[in-house]
Specification:
heterodimer; A: 296 residues; mainly alpha; MetI-like fold; 2 domains; 13 helices; B: 381 residues; alpha+beta; Rossmann fold; OB fold (Dihydrolipoamide Acetyltransferase, E2P); six-stranded mixed β-sheet; 9 helices; 20 strands; globular; disordered N terminus; transmembrane helix (chain A)
Chain lengths: 296, 381
């Protein structure tokens, strides 16, 4: 009985907070827009019994999904989101790996402090930190003023309201998610392995590529997914830092929902986004599984 | 009981250290290694010869690991020089030395298969594929690992992992193989088997082995010579029988094997000394070539298996009366702790040559113990 309760709890949680909302969103995506409250039709009327359910089901169709393929805005937004997420992930990896490596090689008594410094930004609200970047990147912001005072540039750089600002925002925000899993794998690594590689004739650099890199690959893959998956659906960063020319699916979704009040199309966009994300999520899970097997 | 000395019973088959013309493979010349204020190795001079199985033995912190790491190239000496085949290797980095090491916890690459682990060093040399294949296969055969070539290190047993580590470090056919506590992770039975396997492989490949261990039994079993270390210094370097039967100091006598030590005053006598050690007890007779002043403080070290135990008084050089206070039954032999009249305890060992579950002596038995003058070792310090 106790065991059943233990198993049931996560399933209930998933049922209430994922499966039920998902079914509702799926249902809305199959509905049509209507000037009503709620702003879609049909709605389920159980008071009419079987006839009501039959009416309700016959009112559902895939019209909105067909619509998404007709307007190129949507697939361009999906593609651009995946691209921005991909590039941000690569930049985050390029910055995060050396940080994690440096932390893992630091003296053991320094490691908790360094780890703390990586986590410290989470103590401030994410929204405030993104706003702070507006102050840094805007044309009369800190960055431009410093560069102009140093006579490096004569006219302010247009960084804010561009895709570059979105990269800055995503890389900054998700860096800890890259650093932590890589650090975890590097820290576990036995230094004797590097000595063994050197003893067998590898150079320092060779030992890194032949031993350290392959052994940290699990952490690298985990970090990449932890950045890539949320970055695809990111809404706050592109809407605050990216200009009107930055096309990301999160923004499109927001506009469909709040500006156009087209809940059915917005729901269809969300369903497709979820389907796109399932692929990397499954790959991520498989990587974790393999990692565990290798250690176990 | 035999009074023959070690040299007479052991035939000198392989003893380059006794040959003044032999050139050593490794020479430590006044090597000192300091870490900050701490002196790990103190002005050490030592020769190791080709094809030797040389053991560095000592308690943890005695500097044996530092010595090995200097040979591998992971540490450089603070003072002095280390020569390998006449060449100073003090500053040569580890990847440029004809020296390979078998690490304490094997340090096998977990992401590579057994085959790839063994091939690792060969690939770094840029050898041809056919040559690498051949060499790896040879190593797998030598260590009886053919069946496990495709497995990853975590898919094989501890004993097999140990053999992979050995095969990997031997693959490049180094001039010198270093083994850092190679059998420490194995259980007792497997360890004993593996000791003989190691000796066998050492003989087959003709490689010079230097082994670091804190296990004196292991060192005695495998080594051609043993260096006993203490606090950064080598206390004695000799073959295992000499280390055991003719320890150079109290430290060595006490560190290797079981021993009873009696302190006393030396008086010259024919062929050696008599040692006065307690009021009302007969002085101990010891045969010794040691040059001690009349009346000097000295120690007599006596191994338990050299002490006979009897119910009645037996005529011998040294005969003492005592009471059995403790019995250690080990199956093949029994160790008796015999308390003498002055409270001192002497250990005596008896081989259980007969199949009898009843012990010849029991607690509180009055017994006589005796040993000949040649069995005790006289030590100055």
């Amino acid at each position: 009985m106790r065991r059943l309760a233990v198993i049931a709890l996560p399933y209930l949680w998933l049922l209430a907070l994922f499966l039920v909302p998902f079914v509702i969103v799926l249902k809305i995506s199959l509905s049509d827009i209507a000037v009503a409250i709620p702003p879609y039709t049909p709605t389920l009327d159980l008071s009419e019994g079987w006839a009501g359910i039959r009416d309700f089901l016959s009112g559902l169709d895939f019209e909105n999904f067909v619509f998404l393929t007709q307007d190129d805005l949507y697939w361009r937004a999906y593609l651009s989101s995946v691209w921005i997420a991909f590039v941000s992930t690569l930049i985050t990896l390029a910055i995060g790996y050396p940080i994690a490596y440096g932390m893992a090689r630091a003296a053991p008594e320094w490691r908790p402090t360094l780890l703390m410094l990586v986590i410290l930004p989470f103590w401030t609200s994410f929204l405030i930190r993104v706003y702070a970047w507006i102050g840094i990147l805007s044309s009369d912001g800190i960055l431009n003023r410093v560069l102009m005072d140093l006579w490096i540039i004569d006219a302010p750089l247009q960084i804010l309201n561009s895709t570059n600002a979105v990269y800055v925002g995503i890389v900054y925000t998700y860096l800890p998610f890259m650093v932590l899993p890589i650090y975890a794998t590097l820290e576990k690594m036995d230094d004797a392995l590097l000595e063994a590689a050197e003893d067998l004739g590898a150079s320092r650099l060779g030992a890194f590529w032949l031993v350290t890199w392959p052994l940290s690959r699990g952490g690298v893959v985990a970090g990449c997914f932890l950045v890539f998956i949320p970055a695809i659906g990111e809404f706050v960063i592109p809407s605050l830092l990216g200009g009107s020319d930055t096309l990301m699916i999160g923004k499109v979704l927001w506009e469909e929902f709040f500006s156009n009040r087209d809940w059915p199309v917005a729901s269809a966009v969300a369903i497709i986004l979820l389907l796109i994300l399932i692929v990397p999520i499954v790959l991520f899970q498989r990587n974790e599984q393999k990692q565990r097997e290798r250690e176990g | 009981m035999s009074t023959a000395t070690a040299e007479r019973t052991r035939p000198a088959v392989f003893a380059p250290w006794d040959d003044p013309d032999a050139t050593p493979l490794i020479e430590f010349r006044g090597v000192t290694k300091r870490f900050g204020d701490f002196t790990a190795i103190d002005d050490l001079t030592l020769d190791i010869y080709a094809k030797e199985f040389f053991a560095l033995l000592g308690p943890s912190g005695c500097g044996k690991t530092t010595m090995m790491r200097m040979l591998a190239g992971f540490e450089t000496p603070t003072e002095g020089s280390i020569h390998l085949s006449g060449q100073d290797i003090g500053r040569v980095p580890p990847n440029r030395r004809a020296v390979n090491m078998m690490f304490q916890n094997y340090a096998l690459f977990p992401h590579l298969s057994v085959w790839e682990n063994i091939a690792f060093g060969l690939k770094r040399e840029g050898r041809e594929k056919g040559e690498i294949d051949e060499r790896v296969t040879e190593m797998l055969r030598l260590t009886r690992l053919e069946k496990f070539a495709r497995r990853k290190p975590h898919q094989i047993s501890g004993g097999q992992r140990q053999r992979v580590a050995l095969a990997r470090s031997l693959a490049k056919a180094p001039k010198l193989l270093l083994l850092d506590e190679p059998l420490g992770a194995l259980d007792k039975k497997l360890r004993e088997e593996t000791q003989f396997e190691l000796m066998d492989i050492q003989e087959k490949t003709g490689t010079t082995f230097v082994i670091v261990t804190h296990d004196q039994e292991e060192a005695m079993t495998v080594a051609s010579r043993v260096a006993v270390m203490d606090e950064g210094r080598i206390v004695q370097v000799a073959t295992p029988p000499v280390i055991y039967e003719q320890p150079a100091s109290l430290y060595v006598a006490d560190f290797i094997g079981d021993v009873t030590i009696i302190e006393g005053t030396a008086r010259r006598a024919e062929g050696g000394y008599t040692v006065e050690w307690a009021e009302g007890q007969p002085p101990l007779r010891v045969r010794s070539g040691l040059d001690l002043a009349e009346g000097a403080r000295c120690h007599v070290a006596i191994r338990p298996e050299k002490v006979e135990i009897h119910r009645n008084r037996v005529e011998d050089d040294n005969v003492l009366k005592g009471t059995v206070i403790d019995i250690g039954y080990l199956g093949n032999l029994s160790t008796y702790h015999v308390r003498l009249a002055d409270g001192r305890v002497v250990k005596a060992q008896n081989f259980n040559t007969e199949r009898d579950t009843r012990q010849p002596f029991t607690w509180e038995d009055e017994v006589w113990i005796n040993w000949t003058a040649g069995c005790g070792v006289l030590l100055e310090r």
